Each structure stands twice: as structure tokens, then as C-alpha cells.
Amino acid sequence: MKLLSPLNVGTMRLKNRIVLSPITTSYANQDQTPSERLMKYLERRSQGGVGLITTELITVDVEHRYLPRTMTLGDDRFIDCHRELVDRVHAHGAKVQPQISHPGPDTVAPLLGDTQSVGPSVAVAPVWGCASRALGVDEIETIAAQYGEAARRSREAGYDGIELHAAHAYNLIGSFLSQYRNKRKDDYAGYSQQGRLKFLLQVLQEIRQRAGGDFPVTLSISGYERNPGGRSIDDTPSIAPQLVAAGVDCFRVSGGVSDLLVSPIVPRTEHGD
Q1: Which of 27, 66, 170, 180 does the annotation list as catalytic?
Q2: What pLDDT was estimated at residue 239?
């Protein structure tokens, strides 16, 4: 059976093709470290025979949390606790990778303090109702380096690769990739395909420089955003060769955009196809 046959993702060898996608649990500790409950949860998935586990979203910036109880790789002090998580998953035979992201406009930081959310342009988070501010070019370059450092820490913690969140006009990379949120007029302009791609290509370059060219990278990306102003169905196929050349080893393709009810991403049965 093909499902149970091995698969290579870059330099990562999977024992089978069963992959646990990132699932938000909110099991992390308040200090953004993996809790005992979370590690036991992932251990059980490894014991069940899955070939690859992708963790829930892990941020590249300590200050910009995704949710009140999510993990971060935004500082070297978090490496050791992630190493324990990795070791416990590896003990049962699965590979494991973190999904790393900067939440961008979708962070809960404004609800927890005075930090404003950031994005390519001003955008209002559909769930939290907080407006982001547009990033300056120097800030964009700094955040790209944060992605590279989070990838380096992932490797040092023993993870087998990483997944980048770039889907659904959501979080920071996804927001840059889609005209739905990217209203810039500079080199990162949303109306230009190369402008929309620029930040993601910078991120991939930083990852390769800091984590190594042989460290596997999976990209979570929208195939079709199905929303006025969103990415069309032919956008991902047209940019995929550039992304592969920049270091992407595997694509995980989904669809829709994030809205208040996330209805285009996980539709109810009455929506049909």
C-alpha cells in the first residue's frame, strides 16, 4: 500500500506517508514552552504510527503570540524545552517538525499588552478586531531574520525540518502573498506577483543561511483563496518553481481565507464543493 511506503522530504526520510497536520491545542504553558500535557499528546500520536508530526503554530517572535497559550522559538532559551519534545516524539518512531510563523495581523499581542499587530498594510484581524500597522522595510528585513533564527533553533533542538505558514491571507507571510491584505505600493506591492513574493523569498534565504541548505522546508500555502481580492487558482502553480529554487522541499496545499467563522477553509456540509 502506497500510504504505508517510505517517503523522502528533502533529507528527511519518513517511514510512511501519514502526516499529522498542525492542530491548535492551546496546551502550551503560559510562558510559551511546551507543557507536559502537550508533549504527552504528541507522544501518543507518534505511538499511533504516524510518519510525520507537524506541531501547532510556533512563533518566531516572543512578543507577538499567536494565542495566549502557544509556543515560541523566538529566543535561544527555548531550545532545550523543544529538544525534550523532539526526543519524546522520536522515541516512538515519528519525525517531527514545527510550523513556524509570525502571526502578523492575527496576533493576540494587542489584547495582552500595548504591542500593536503588524502586517504589509493596515488590516483588521477578523477574530480579535484589532487593526495592524504597516511594516517599514527595515522591520520586514528584521522579521525575515527572525524566521531564519527560529529555523536555526529548530535544527539545534533536533527537529527534522520545519513547516512555514504562508496560507489563507493569514499571519504575516500569507498576508504579504495576497492582495486581499497586501495593499503596499513599494517593492513588496500586492498588485505585483514578485512584490507579493519578495518577503517569502527573503525568509527562505534567511532560513537557508542560518539553518543550512539541507534542512527540510515544507510550505503551507493556499491553492485557491476563493475570495474577492484573494489569490487565484493559477497563482501557486506559477510561483512554485521559484519557491522550489529558493529552498522549498514540499508543499502542503489548502484553500480559502481566514474570516470570522473560518467558513471558507473548513466549510460545513451545506456548502458542498
Answers
A1: 170
A2: 97
